[in-house]
Amino acid sequence: MIPFLQLTPGEDAPVIRAAIDRVIARGWFVLGPELEAFEQEFAGASGASAAVGVGTGTDALAIALRALGIGRGDEVITAPLSAAYSALAIMMTGARPVFADIDADRLTLDPNAAAAAVTPRTAAIMPVHLYGQPADMTAIAQVAARHGLAIIEDCCQAHLATCAGKPVGSFGDAAAFSFYPTKNLGALGDGGAIVTTDRELAVRAKRLRNGGQTDRYHHGEFGVNSRLDEMQAAILRARLPLLGGWTTRRREIAREYRSRLSHQRAVIVPPELDDGHVYHLFPVRSAARDAVQSRLRAAGVETLIHYPVPIPRQPALAPEQPADCPIANRVCNEILSLPLYPSLPPQAIEQVVDALAV
What we know:
This protein is of the alpha/beta class.
């Protein structure tokens, strides 16, 4: 059986063990030197001037929105195809998520649809760099500038991705990353970070993640308890130097898939529209998705669906009266993710391709 994903530490096991032992020996587990060092290192890797470690990628989005003053009465335009947490983060602030449909090829927020969704209440646009493919940030930034809107980039699936040669997360006011174990840079638990070039925004985000404290036991504003702990920060520090190599390997596997699947009829491979794609996932599409998935399962290949239900059709979003997004609806019925991770062996790719050629 070819597993969809491999989460057990491999080549990084020795450095992870050393990081864990270092934290235990120091006896400092929250808001300590490991987090401070990781924030500096991750900001540098992301092309930002500051990073703020928080408990999850969802919290990173919500805290970034709040740090920008976005909340009740505001609308935030976002994509209907993603994990639902992007929209839930907007709702956590009291703002309303507004869904604009996706580009049928890129599978990310369509800039024209986003422009059409702007109302007098729109405060921000939250594009999602889905599957590691960057959204069309050049066009989205133009829409935001035209209407005076903030941009908060959801980079939770796009560590080290670039758009038109520029790092994702650097096009707007702030960006959010997730370190959930399945991500390209994953912790051994939950974690997230906000990155920004706005020093004042970073200062407020650090305050908001720690209960709104201005100093110990003095809470200047309503905040939350969402802090990237020392253990996960140390593990992420150990893995960060390996991320470039892992990203290169992901791109090599994706190129092999694209080459080998270009002449078969079972699935359609979405195009790579920017060479800054980092292939968090490798999705394919098929009108007969369930049959293709069954065929792969019978051949010993595990696959997953990202995502079977568009966010506007989730019951949790019903009170927001979301607009229907027909392209996203269609894609959710066709999408299927093939195994792709740095340690995936060449014979596994062969097995996947052979199963699809039957």
